[in-house]
Design a protein that fits this description.
Elements: H1 3-25, H2 33-43, H3 48-55
């Protein structure tokens, strides 16, 4: 297995995590579409869990390790 295989898997995993975070925050009206995209881009290159922690308005969602993007 070469490193490009792992890169592609990591890229896909990150995309799935961002899609789940988008659904959680935008679909339920916690953030608008533009506000979500601006906030994600402002966070720069950090793990999705850290982006979720920074964007989440409620304390329950801010617990470390409490979020899963898929069942």
């Amino acid at each position: 297995m070469c490193s490009s295989d792992l890169y592609q898997a990591a890229y896909m995993l990150g995309g799935l995590q961002l899609r789940a975070l988008h659904g959680e925050l935008v679909a339920y009206g916690k953030l608008g579409e533009k506000a979500f995209h601006d906030a994600v881009l402002t966070q720069n290159s950090i793990p999705i869990a850290a982006v979720r922690w920074a964007l989440s308005p409620d304390e329950v969602a801010r617990r470390p390790g409490a979020w899963r993007f898929a069942d």
